[in-house]
Amino acid sequence: MTEQKAQPREQIATHIYRRPEASEQSATTVGASTHQRVVTRHREVQPTAGESYVQRRNRLYSARAKVPTHHAPTPRRARTLAQTGVPAAGGLKRPLPPYHHTPVPVRSGRRHTHRLGFLWRIFGFFAVVVMVILGANFALTSSAFRVAQVSVVGTHNDPLVSSIQHMGMQGQNIFLIDVVALTERIEMLPVVASANLAKQWPNQLQVSITERTPVLLWQTAHGTYSVDRHGIVIAPAAETMSADALMTVVDTRQQGKISGGRGTEIHPGVQLNAADIAFATAVFAGLPKVAGVTNFSLRYIDSMPAVPANTGGHRGYVVESKAGWTAYLGGANDANPLNNRLIELQQILALAQREQLSLATIDLRFGLRPVYTLKQPQS
Fold first, then answer.
1. SS3 sequence, the chain?
2. From CA 87, how far away is CA 93, in angstroms rounded?
3. Which of 76, 81, 88, 182 has its CA 20 to 30 A from that of 273?
4. Residue 296 has pLDDT above 60, yes or no
5. 338-355 vs 274-286: helix crossing angle, rounded to 10
6. What is the pLDDT at residue 288?
7. What is the pLDDT of residues 79-100, one digit of tens each?
8. How many degrees, rounded to 5, is the angle at CA 85 between CA 81 and CA 86?
9. Residues with Cβ < 8 Å from 335, sequence gap 6 or more?
10. Nearest Cα to 192, choosing from 180, 179, 210?
């Protein structure tokens, strides 16, 4: 093929032809051969050197373009049993030899790299430990984290605010301050119902206070105190806001037996019987509304006088009217509801007004059998 490609561009045409008879005869006379080889050439103009290079290049490009770049793979012929000794398909396969694991030896360079990595991890661990120790030391000893201000919200009670701010919280480290213990200590104050202490970084504390709400005044031989609905003695009446708007219970009991014998005298922080406080509050609210009695005082006594229908007295409330009569209401644990007792009192007062009776005592402790006495006429 190289010889064919190397042929010159000029095409040489060889023609063998026979001359006519006349010519043959004339040729014989001359003595020449009857057959003559004639070579003819193309009469085209021979190209210059530059043109022949361009043409050769174009033909080369066109020849390369015609040659396929990818050849389809020829199917391989399956090897026969005679050639391989194994059936073409479905035959037995020769088992592989057993594999024996052999450890790959570690190069000395890798061992050196592992040692360096291990040492770097140790150094990094100790660096972290040192940084933690330095940071903890700074946090525990720096003055930037010592409590500088304690703010109290939720109350306008200046004595309460002052007592909270002087509990020794200022100057303590804010990380070491015991929030739970301080909250319990604040809630032990009689005037505080609940408290919440929160840290405000970096050096402030905020105390949220919910005060107890007094419902009445409890007067004893040692003083008058405000009491909430749970029976907690809050503070002296002089230190209680809006104390003039509260009703007063006069306690004439022996002070050694208050609250079922759990204390020696009434003072802030002592808890009275919550049922007695609720009963007294209901009397102050219901007596003017049901019985129409507005001008009275309420006393709490150890024992009430015995009457013929009663086997003995017990602690309870006594209403002393400015009109001159006394009504024994009993206590909160009596079977007769308070509202029934007040209705009976209203009916007896209405009867006394119709009959022009001068009532002395009215005992309402026996359910549907109220007992009243009249004043003895003066001789």
1. CHHHHCCCCCCEEEECCCCCHHHHHHHHHHCCCCCCCEEEECCCCCCCHHHHHHHHHHHHHHHHHHCCCCCCCCCCCCCCHHHHCCCCCCCCCCCCCCCCCCCCCCCHHHHHHHHHHHHHHHHHHHHHHHHHHHHHHHHHHCHHHECCEEEEECCCCHHHHHHHHCCCCCCCECCCCCHHHHHHHHHCCCCEEEEEEEEECCCEEEEEEEECCEEEEEEECCEEEEEECCCEEEEEHHHCCCHHHCCEEEECCCHHHHHHCCCCCCCCCCECCHHHHHHHHHHHHHHHHHHCCCCEEEEEECCCCCCCCCCCCCCEEEEEECCCCEEEEECCCCCCCHHHHHHHHHHHHHHHHHHCCCEEEEECCCCCCCEEEECCCCC
2. 9
3. 182
4. yes
5. 40
6. 94
7. 555 555 555 555 555 677 776 6
8. 75
9. 367
10. 210
Paired tokens of 146: 């010592």
Q: What mean pLDDT value characterizes the chain? A: 78
Q: Tokens 């419902």 — which residue?
A: 215
Rounded mean pLDDT, 160-185: 91
Token pair recorded at residue 226: 């405000």
**Tokens standing for 297?**
């005082």
